[in-house]
């Protein structure tokens, strides 16, 4: 039987369809990033240990087989989504060879057929994750799981795919992981590797260690009360519970011998005795330490600090409370950070009124430039959000202790039942004072290219670090992106195992507001010009950020998959000149990606 194959040419198109299932789509309880090579014997485990992952035994009826196209139907460098009856697969032809993998990105479910195929991997059109087309392994982030692979053969010029039905349904795969072979009493105050923080950096670090064959104890501690969850969704989907946002369940972590200690805040580190002290007075010694405590809100000075219903968005409870209190009431957002603006957008269909107070004249001007910032501001105003720019908060006024008014320094008084402060954040590194770990004047921890601090055996990653970034001649930079934290976790884990690897990634960031997504790739700090193609006012554009005649970053709305295409070019080490993007001719971006 020949199943219909839907051909989608990979071209630069303006997409109205696929209208952002990525804005809200459930995370599918992703799995930390997965490479499917066997774990191997990395100084800690034998080949037998690595092979000890349970093998799934299937019967023939667990498989489906279908002829999906003629061998000449596809050109090199082409991708096609094909229907096998029990599910869909992504069929790829590169260098004359066919391969088939899962068709949805395991991160948020993006259709990979609309992504970018290049040099043996496919890059997600939404958030830039990369997957090896031969193994299905995740090679760049965000997301935690890899893709299933399917058998492909050619018979009588017909391309036939044989696939496991379960893999077709799940569309994702966790990499095999080693187990802990050390005999450990869980009350023992020692861990071979101690991870402080359970965000993407900490989680990916723990899983990479197990994937790469580490068989000693791993303890991950967090001040959060939940297992790792998808924090970027808090500001976009305010009513989501911790369980809905969960990246890994307790059961998953236990199955892979990753011990999680919740509500366990580190208050001191002593690198001489190799010990971390916690707020509850307990202490844990380590052989190697990974610090990934993330950001904390910057304090804001105003009168009325004790007034209730004023929130920093830190936890699922904060988000849930904001959504509940804003229902048919007046919401005020202080600050035009991405988090603040996303919360404002999420509240417009719930609240009676939404007001934003900003210290700048235009939101996002520093990150995205004046034109893009103004266009996004207009989008908010169209959705009845009121801006009070070039302003600051003087006082929060309460009635019976609950917020009733926000007073601005200009004298303007805003009615307010709930207030969200989104004025930015700084590194949560106060506990490292007198630790021996070097912290700079801004609170960041400088690390080398393997994510190691100035102290041997102590690593750090995520929002708290400055690290040598290849895209800026290894200048030390801070890039507090969700995606970058994943990369740091992987690099640190490999460094701990004596397999130093360098950061090879293009920073990728996204935001979602009113069902529209903004994509951003590169490192645009210090850009001196913006070249815009498309129509900014219609929010169908691509903006190239240049520095000294060179493109250093790109942002787009409704122009997929151009940001992933540019990320692919930047990631290959090529330089994109300003003159290349000023002409409006994008043909240099739309090659078949198969050289």
TrEMBL record:
Assigned keywords, A-Z: 2Fe-2S, FAD, Flavoprotein, Iron, Iron-sulfur, Metal-binding, Oxidoreductase
Source organism of this protein record: Salmo trutta
Family to which this protein belongs: Belongs to the FAD-dependent oxidoreductase family.
Domain Rieske: 66-161
GO biological process, alphabetically ordered: execution phase of apoptosis
UniProt KW Cytoplasm keyword: no
SUPFAM superfamilies xrefs: FAD/NAD(P)-binding domain, FAD/NAD-linked reductases, dimerisation (C-terminal) domain, ISP domain
The protein, known as: AIF family member 3
Record-level GO cellular component terms: mitochondrion
Keyword hit for Metal-binding: yes
Chain segments carrying region Disordered: 23-46
MF (Gene Ontology): 2 iron, 2 sulfur cluster binding; metal ion binding; oxidoreductase activity, acting on NAD(P)H
């Amino acid at each position: 039987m020949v199943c219909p194959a839907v051909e989608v040419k990979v071209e630069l198109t303006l997409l109205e369809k696929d209208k952002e299932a990525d804005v809200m789509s459930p995370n599918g309880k992703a799995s930390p990033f997965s490479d499917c090579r066997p774990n191997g014997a990395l100084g800690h485990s034998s080949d037998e240990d690595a092979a000890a992952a349970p093998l799934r035994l299937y019967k023939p009826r667990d498989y489906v087989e279908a002829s999906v196209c003629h061998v000449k139907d596809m050109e090199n460098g082409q991708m096609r989504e094909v229907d096998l009856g029990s599910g869909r697969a992504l069929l790829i032809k590169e260098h004359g060879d066919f391969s088939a993998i899962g068709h949805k990105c395991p991160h948020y479910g993006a259709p990979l057929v609309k992504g970018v195929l290049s040099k043996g991997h496919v890059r997600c059109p939404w958030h830039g994750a990369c997957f090896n087309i031969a193994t299905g392994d995740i090679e760049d982030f965000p997301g935690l799981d890899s893709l299933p692979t399917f058998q492909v053969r050619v018979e009588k010029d017909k391309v036939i795919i044989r696939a496991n039905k379960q893999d077709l349904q799940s569309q994702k795969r966790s990499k095999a992981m080693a187990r802990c072979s050390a005999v450990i009493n869980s009350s023992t105050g020692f861990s071979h590797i101690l991870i402080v923080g359970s965000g993407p950096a900490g989680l990916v670090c723990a899983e990479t260690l197990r994937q790469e064959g580490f068989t000693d104890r791993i303890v991950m501690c967090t001040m959060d009360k939940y297992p790792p969850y998808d924090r970027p969704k808090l500001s976009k989907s305010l009513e989501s519970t911790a369980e809905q946002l969960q990246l890994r369940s307790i059961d998953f972590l236990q199955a892979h011998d990753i011990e999680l200690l919740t509500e366990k805040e580190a208050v001191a580190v002593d690198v001489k005795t190799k010990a971390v002290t916690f707020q509850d007075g307990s202490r844990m010694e380590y052989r190697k330490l990974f610090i990934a405590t993330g950001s904390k809100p910057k304090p804001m000075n105003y009168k009325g600090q004790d007034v209730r219903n004023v929130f920093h968005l830190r936890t699922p409870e904060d988000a849930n409370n904001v959504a509940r209190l804003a229902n048919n009431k007046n919401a005020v957002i202080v600050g035009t950070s991405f988090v603040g603006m996303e919360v404002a957008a999420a509240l417009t269909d719930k609240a009676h009124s939404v007001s934003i107070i900003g210290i700048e004249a235009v939101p996002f001007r520093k990150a995205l430039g004046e034109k893009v910032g103004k266009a996004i501001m207009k989008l908010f105003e169209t959705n009845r959000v009121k801006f009070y720019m070039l302003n600051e908060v003087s006082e929060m006024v309460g009635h019976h202790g609950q917020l009733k008014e926000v007073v601005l320094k200009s004298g303007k008084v805003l009615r307010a039942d709930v207030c969200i402060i989104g004025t930015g954040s700084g590194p949560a590194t106060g506990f490292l004072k007198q630790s021996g770990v070097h912290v700079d004047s801004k609170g960041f921890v400088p690390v080398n290219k393997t994510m190691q601090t100035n102290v041997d055996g102590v690593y750090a990653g995520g929002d708290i670090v400055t690290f040598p970034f290849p895209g800026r001649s290894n200048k030390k930079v801070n890039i507090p992106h969700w995606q970058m934290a994943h990369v740091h976790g992987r690099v640190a884990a490999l460094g701990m195992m004596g397999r130093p690897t360098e950061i090879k990634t293009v920073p990728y960031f996204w935001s979602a507001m009113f069902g529209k997504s903004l994509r951003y790739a590169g490192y645009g700090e210090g850009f001196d010009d913006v070249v815009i193609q498309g129509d900014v006012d219609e929010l169908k554009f691509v903006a190239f950020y240049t520095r000294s005649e060179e493109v250093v970053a790109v942002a787009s709305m409704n122009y997929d998959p151009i940001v992933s295409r540019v990320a692919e070019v930047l990631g290959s080490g090529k330089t994109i000149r300003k003159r290349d993007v000023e002409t409006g001719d994008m043909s240099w971006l739309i090659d078949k990606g198969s050289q």
